[in-house]
Amino acid sequence: MAELTQRTASLGDIKDIWSLMKEVASDVPFDPASDAAQASVLTEIMACCTSGLSTVAVGADKAIVGALLVRRDDFEWGFRNGDTVHVSYAVIAPSHRDQGVLQALVAEIQARKVPVLASVKNGNGFALGDQLGKLGFAREETAASGWGDLYKWQPSPLAAQA
C-alpha cells in the first residue's frame, strides 16, 4: 500500500464511497437497481462517515480505492455501554485487491484496542470472511435468517491495558 494513504472518512466522501460500492456491488453484495437496497446502503454509508471511525484508502490521484465502513456497535453501546465497533462494509476497488489495502484498513481499527465486529453478507464475492480470519477474526455467529455471518476480533487483555 506504498502509494496509498489512509485517512478518516467524512461526509464529503459519501459520493466517492457510493461510486466504489456500486462498482463492487456484486461482491459486497447488494442490488444497486433496488431503491430499497440503495436507501439502506446509503444510510449506512452516511452513518459510518459521520462516526469518526471509518477509514478510506486514497490513491495518488486522490481517488478512494478502499473503505472500511465502521461505527459503534448499537447493541454493545446501547445495552452494555461497551466500546465495541462494527464494520458494516469493507470495499476495495478491484484494481487494488491483493495489495494489502484491506489489511492496512483493518490494522488501523485494530490499533484502537477495542473489540471489533464485522458483518459479512451472504453472497460476498470478496471472500471477506476468509480474509478476516487471516487478520485474527473468528466467526462469532451465523445468522439464522441467512443474512450473513458475524465475525469478531478481540484485543488481547494485555494490549487493551496498554
Question: Can you characterise this structure?
Answer:
This protein is an alpha+beta fold. Helices cover 33% and strands 26% of the residues. The protein is built from 6 helices and 7 strands, in the order E-H-H-E-E-H-E-H-E-H-E-E-H. It has a 7-stranded mixed beta sheet, sandwiched between helices. The chain is globular and about 40 Å long. The mean pLDDT is 89.
| Helical run tally | 6
**Largest beta-sheet characterization:** 7 strands, mixed
User: Which residues sit in consecutive blocks of at least 5 with pLDDT less than 50?
Assistant: none
The CATH architecture can be named as 3-Layer(aba) Sandwich
Order of helices and strands: EHHEEHEHEHEEH
> What structural class is derived from the secondary structure elements?
alpha+beta
* Strands side by side in the biggest sheet: 1-2-3-4-5-7-6
Overall strand count: 7
Average pLDDT across residues?
89
Can you identify the CATH superfamily? Gcn5-related N-acetyltransferase (GNAT)
The CATH class assignment is: Alpha Beta
Helix content, binned percent: 25-40%
- Beta-strand residue fraction: 25-35%
User: What is the CA-CA span between the terminal residues?
Assistant: 27 Å
Instruction: Tell me, briefly, the overall form.
Output: globular
What is the structure about, briefly put?
The protein is an alpha+beta fold. The protein has helices at 14-23, 35-49, 74-80, 101-110, 128-134, 157-161; strands spanning 5-8, 55-58, 64-72, 85-92, 116-121, 138-142, 148-153.
